[in-house]
């Protein structure tokens, strides 16, 4: 699954983590200002980013782009020297490009969140003062439009690239399995493993990986903002005064939901795995029946299908209460961020722009902490595919 596409997977992913942490430490311990040695304006790193699309080509942003490119080149060069995996251009440079696009998408969210304050405060001012200059509204709307145009363009490019990335990963797995086909062909459902499971595994891994990295990056970008905004919400409903109230409110609610769904959904991965096994056995008998008259007899097919029926009915039952709990949690989640702000709103010390900014930041952080909640069904499917492919690969050991 991994060694076909990534060079020495265990060491590779450890090195990715170490290299990312090393670069983060360097960046935040002064590296963000080192661009001055390359001719960037003095003090550029201390200048606050403007509200608008121009924040994407400030000196600070350009220096980060260059830093990211150099860090990726050094990392790729290291693995080029120590490994000859034919797919590592895609697995390293391709992954880096996707990672950069995730980071850029998070920066777009930060830019939109910064735009909330002047835009909504302008609306509040016009409503409270009996009107204003309509051109100011158009100007602020264009600011958002420019940000959105950059974001949408890059998102489309990234979507196109990711499609090719996934297919390359699937190709790598397909080549690996077909190379050992003589050993693997006798495994029940071998054709499904090579044709279908490789495709689904690559797709789901990419989706979950992107969402995980995005969740982490959103936390890195928005948690400091949420810490600052917490001073405007000194009290929480029921609990009263709480330091860093918004941060604690997001963490506690997300942990509660994650643990809840993990408990109620604990049986689902095993049932999904069994489902594929009984489906594969039924399909295999039907395929044999196409070429051999003595196979796929009604009694045999009835017995195999009864196993499918039994497993599906168990899945329906367990998904019923899982979906009930998940749906109720999501419904309460819609109200949660607003209820948290009730004490601060009732005090009358907040502007409309501040409410929208806090709501936006709080929702971003809360959703990031809820990564497992939003992805739990997909994780269940991935675990079942992983178990099937792992059992498939065990033949080669």
- Estimated radius of gyration: 26 Å
For the termini, the CA-CA separation is: 14 Å
Q: What general outline do the C-alpha atoms trace?
A: globular
Helix content: over 70%
Task: List unreliable stretches of 5+ residues.
Answer: none
Total number of β-strand segments? Answer: 2
State the helix count: 12
Q: Biggest sheet, strands in spatial order?
A: 1-2
Which structural class do the helices and strands define?
mainly alpha
Instruction: Provide mean pLDDT, rounded.
Output: 80
Count of individual domains? 2
Order of helices and strands: HHHHHHEEHHHHHH
Largest sheet: 2 strands, antiparallel
Measured by DSSP, the beta-strand proportion falls in: under 5%
Pfam families: SbmA_BacA
Membrane topology: Multi-pass membrane protein
Main location: membrane
Subcellular location: Cell membrane
Task: Describe the 3D structure.
Strands 1-2 form a two-stranded antiparallel ribbon. β1 and β2 (240-241) form a beta hairpin. The longest helix has 46 residues, at 134-179. The chain starts with 8 loop residues before the first helix and ends with a helix. The chain has helices at residues 9-28, 59-82, 88-128, 134-179, 181-184, 190-229, 245-264, 268-291, 298-340, 342-346, 352-369, 371-393; strands at residues 235-236, 240-241. It folds into 2 domains: 1-179, no CATH class; 231-397, no CATH class. Helix content is 78%, strand content 1%. With 397 residues, the protein is mainly alpha-helical.
